[in-house]
Amino acid sequence: MTGRTATVVGGGIGGLAAALALTRRGWRVEVWERAAEFTEIGAGLSLWPNALHALAALGLDGQVRDLAAVEAGGGVRDRAGRWLSRTDNSELERRFGMPLVVLHRADLVRALAEALPPGTLRASSEVTGIRDDGDGVVVEGGGIRRVDLVVGADGLHSTVRRLQWPEAAAPRYAGYTAWRMITEPMPTPVGDGAATWGRGERFGFTALPGGRFYCFGTATVPAGGKAPGSERAEVLRRFGGWPKPIPDLLAAVPESAVLRHDIYDLPPLPDYVRGRVALLGDAAHAMTPNLGQGACQALEDAVVLAASLDAAPDIDAALARYDQARRSRTQMVVRRSARMGTIGQLAWPPAVLGRDLAARLTPAALTLRSMTPILGWRP
């Protein structure tokens, strides 16, 4: 496979992981990123066992675990702060071979970027056209390149998807918005992370290295809304009276640290490959964050794409293999994540009561077993 060339469009987690997986199999790769630098402005990120297995295939699992925090446990609470379900991280690791870890998204992006050969990354390079050229693909925009493969890893509003899948449905609003934030180091212990379910609202938190916490809140509101004041003030208004330690965590969030994003997912595509162009990550299967699997599935995509190209006799056969391996799995995760979001955002009091009772009565072992199709993945 040596000597083959690829352009990866998008310098986020999936694109950088794909570039690394390909370069380690002898491909010459350029990563085109529209932004002026390769970084990530998001907040925290959960990496479940399947993602750590993908990072192990890239040779980065140990390095990433050094950058992350591992919590002893977590779970779901009701609006009064009572536990509905709990998770033992040691059991998660025993069953799936890796723990659940949490780190800042920027730290993972940096680790992936620094593992790439010099000259791989091209910032301020926007793709404006893609066209077939016999046995290859011509990429136009931030220069012109003829390559053997184009990987579209350019996110929810993917240019590559728009160019090659013009019939694809637009991303769909999930019905709720999310605030994400990172606290300053907490002066006192906080305890295990948790997601607290309210009525049409949720709030969750989990530990990061250095005593900081990643927090998120969600609320069922129309798309495109903005708080009348600051987003931090809106978060305090909605969640400041929720059970401890939520008020203490919010008190430690700087004014500028609150990010707000409406939540979208992508209707299923009929395929992830068109000619020598392949989609991965959010460009192929953007999902809601309810299972914490967005980045995890992108890392899986990257590893499977490179392995398929290594195993199949030619690129076209390899891409067909990749599409077959990834499409049904990732679209299953999209559906499950959407269902979990619907459950978490319930607002009608009888439905909320039934949801909370069902969560309280479901054994933790059964909950963990239900996640096996997702977390049990291996390269």
Automatic annotation (TrEMBL):
Q: Which keywords describe this protein according to UniProt?
A: Monooxygenase, Oxidoreductase
Superkingdom in the source lineage = Bacteria
Molecular function via GO:
monooxygenase activity
**Every FAD-binding domain range:** 7-162, 271-337
Q: Name one Pfam family in it.
A: FAD_binding_3
- InterPro entries noted in UniProt: FAD-bd, FAD-dep_Monooxygenase_BioMet, FAD/NAD-bd_sf
Keyword Nucleotidyltransferase present in the record's keywords: the answer is: no
PANTHER family reported in the protein's UniProt record:
MONOOXYGENASE (PTHR13789), PUTATIVE (AFU_ORTHOLOGUE AFUA_6G14510)-RELATED (PTHR13789:SF309)
Task: State what protein this is by name.
Answer: FAD-dependent monooxygenase
